[in-house]
């Protein structure tokens, strides 16, 4: 088993793929964190995140708030559109936490899910117009 894990780690460390996820999980681990459809978009920086959308669909990476490119850090920690959700769900010291620390907090994870769900609903509404 150790040889398999070592091979996997070597492949993961040297790959050019999944680097956003690698930033959170540089060491492979068999422990599971509790993700779901919405949380996985934040972990992988894929899905409805503007920077990812711009790479896939040649759209603007700029967040609809207009203050910066929409990456996972902007969405979770900075975007003024989500200030009320952060206030309701995130601990008061959230700005000092890493994304992984924040996602380890059940209430904060619920807030991140709420943000991503609203983002998906907005994208779906736009596609249906």
Descriptive key words:
mainly alpha; globular
Q: How do the helices and strands line up, and which of them pair or pack?
A:
Elements: H1 2-14, H2 19-24, H3 37-44, H4 50-57, H5 72-78, H6 83-89, H7 99-103, H8 106-128
Helix pairs in contact: 3-8, 6-8
Describe this structure in words.
The protein has 129 residues and is mainly alpha-helical. The protein is 60% helix and 0% strand. The protein is built from 8 helices and no strands. It has helices spanning 2-14, 19-24, 37-44, 50-57, 72-78, 83-89, 99-103, 106-128. The longest helix has 23 residues, at 106-128. The mean pLDDT is 91. This is Reverse transcriptase zinc-binding domain-containing protein. It comes from Caerostris darwini.
